[in-house]
């Protein structure tokens, strides 16, 4: 209760946005894992962000004249996010959905490093402690231990996704300060679709089950455009370091949905890991990072 009272109203709204967004994203892990039986990773991303781009067009045309000078930066941001999604989706072919959720969640480690480089943001001791707790929680949630530290090709590919996500989080926090959040989201969605097309031409097909098409619409609209819009909104009011810890709720939801739909194991240690992540989330949300003047 004290933590909630100490937060500004906008921060609370941003935290709620992250909660909803991570629940949606976490639920997509088993869905995407199943869809990869019918689609290549490249084509899945193309179709997904085709529907996301359609949702984004109104916001793009309304704002493009006003923010045309920032367009190149936002296009680069879209390319970075495309890389994150591509590496994550390809990695899912070679690793489990729950493990993919864990490795993707490691962007909590990379984000403070990127934030220190771009905006000179120094994490507090309390925030660093929350990062450690969250990382331990992620490891327990996915069954990672000292005795089974084997790394597969899919794991290495997914690490690249985590790095790209951390860069995207920090740059979004910078750009949203003076650019409309709907325009930032719109440019990213359109860019991701355009960039993805050349990589998916070889695997192009329209012969897909109806449920796959409906899933693609969901991934593009709800889990794509509107989820990224929620992320952009949250990064306007919560700094990248704290936000990255809150985003670790995604693998919690990924673990739960993977257990329900894919029958992937949810052990006692996994439950403990989820609890640790929740504790880390509350520690992070009350921590205030410092910004260096140098």
Key structural traits:
1% strand, globular, mainly alpha, 77% helix, two-stranded antiparallel ribbon, disordered N terminus, 294 residues, 2 strands
Mean pLDDT: 83
**What string gives the helices and strands in order?**
HHHHHHEHHHHHHHE
List low-pLDDT spans: 1-6
Binned strand content: under 5%
* Backbone structural class: mainly alpha
Structure characterization notes:
It is built from 13 helices and two strands. The protein is mostly helical and 294 residues long. It has one domain. α2 (9-35) packs antiparallel against α5 (97-104). Residues 1-6 have low confidence and may be disordered.
Q: Helix and strand layout, with pairings?
A:
Elements: H1 2-6, H2 9-35, H3 41-63, H4 71-91, H5 97-104, H6 107-119, E1 121-122, H7 125-142, H8 153-175, H9 181-200, H10 210-237, H11 240-246, H12 249-262, H13 268-285, E2 290-291
Antiparallel strand pairs: 1-2
Helix pairs in contact: 2-5, 2-10, 2-12, 3-9, 3-10, 4-8, 4-9, 5-7, 5-8, 5-12, 6-8, 6-11, 7-13, 8-11, 9-10, 11-13
What is this structure, in a nutshell?
By secondary structure, the chain is mainly alpha-helical.
């Amino acid at each position: 209760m004290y933590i909630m009272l100490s937060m500004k109203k906008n921060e609370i709204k941003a935290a709620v946005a992250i909660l909803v967004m991570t629940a949606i994203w976490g639920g997509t892990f088993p869905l995407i894992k199943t869809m990869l039986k019918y689609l290549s990773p490249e084509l899945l991303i193309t179709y997904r962000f085709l529907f996301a781009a359609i949702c984004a067009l109104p916001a793009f045309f309304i704002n493009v004249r006003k923010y045309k000078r920032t367009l190149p930066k936002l296009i680069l941001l879209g390319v970075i996010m495309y890389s994150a999604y591509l590496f994550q989706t390809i990695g899912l072919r070679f690793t489990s959905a729950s493990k993919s959720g864990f490795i993707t969640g490691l962007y909590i480690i990379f984000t403070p490093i990127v934030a220190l480089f771009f905006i000179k943001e120094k994490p507090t001791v309390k925030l660093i402690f929350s990062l450690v707790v969250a990382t331990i929680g992620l490891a327990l949630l996915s069954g990672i231990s000292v005795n089974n530290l084997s790394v597969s090709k899919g794991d290495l590919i997914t690490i690249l996704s985590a790095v790209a996500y951390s860069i995207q989080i920090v740059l979004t926090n910078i750009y949203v300060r003076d650019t409309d959040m709907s325009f930032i989201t719109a440019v990213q969605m359109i860019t991701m679709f355009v960039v993805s097309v050349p990589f998916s031409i070889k695997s192009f097909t329209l012969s897909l089950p109806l449920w796959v098409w409906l899933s693609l619409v969901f991934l593009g609209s709800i889990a794509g455009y509107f989820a990224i819009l929620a992320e952009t909104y949250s990064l306007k009011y919560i700094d990248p370091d704290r936000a990255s810890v809150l985003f670790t709720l995604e693998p919690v939801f990924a673990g739960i949905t993977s257990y329900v739909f894919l029958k992937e194991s949810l052990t006692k240690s996994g439950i403990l890991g989820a609890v640790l992540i929740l504790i880390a989330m509350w520690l992070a949300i009350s921590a205030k990072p410092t910004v260096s003047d140098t």
